[in-house]
Write a structure and sequence with these properties.
Layout: H1 3-26, H2 29-44, H3 54-75, H4 98-108, H5 110-117, H6 121-133, H7 137-144, H8 148-163, H9 173-188, H10 192-198, E1 199-207, E2 219-221, H11 223-232, E3 240-245, E4 248-253, E5 261-268, E6 271-278, H12 281-286, E7 289-290
Parallel strand pairs: 1-6
Antiparallel strand pairs: 1-2, 3-4, 3-7, 4-5, 5-6
Helix pairs in contact: 1-2, 1-3, 2-3, 3-6, 3-7, 6-7, 6-8, 7-8, 9-10
Amino acid sequence: MDEGEWLAKRFETHRTHLRGVAYRMLGSLSEADDALQEAWLRLSRSDTSGVENLGGWLTTVVARVCLDMLRSRKSRREEPFDAQVPEPSGSQQDGLDPEQETLLAESVGLALLVVLEALAPAERVAFVLHDMFAVPFEDIAPIVGRSPAAARQLASRARRRVQGAGRDPDANVTSRREVVDAFLAALRGADMDGLLAVLDPEFVIRADSTALPPGAPREVRGARNWAKQALAFSRGVRFAQPALVNGEVGVVVAPRGRLFRALSFKITEGKIVEIDVIADPERLRQLDLAVLSD
């Protein structure tokens, strides 16, 4: 076995881990694979004879590549939320299986991926490396070009954003989460009685124009009126997950981890009174989103 084959074999032993790191940083399977390809090129061009921990070395390389890619996104002023992401199908495009990416996104956490998209590049890298992969701040510091103390601050700031810390504690969060969970379970199970049980009889749902087909009403009143429609068109509920939306329990709909819709709830005495469906990209950007702990 020549040196190139030996390196390729060692690289493959770390591929799953490296792909997981890159996906969490980039939120895109195709970009994660691009990052791995760049890491392989750098490995093949480098003298690694003095590298004792190749896995750690490759993790550092992948993190640097991902940080460059995230910064490039910002410099191109790419939209952080893609409101036009289609629902995954079984077809493959450019060698990638959308269903595979959907499963990966769900395993990471759809709401988490959505919130990570809102972080600054260095914050995202520091948070992912430390909080998800236990990389010490001494190793993160040179990747993000900061001191270990500053890298710790980056991760801490990201953690507060992800967890929605800094808000006043709300004793009703748990009970509202239970209502939203019941709402989603009823939709997933096509359970009309279960859905009506969590909706106020005078329930109102409103949606912005981006969320609706042409000519569809912006507002529907009455729990039973809307429930019939909702059960008929509930395919996208697979990609829905509870999250904090502007500090209140709500829902994000995120195929492949890309924000597509956000639902803001008004809940009174255990019943959903109103839902605001947000799909307009500008409105989505302005939302304060955070992950709900299980």
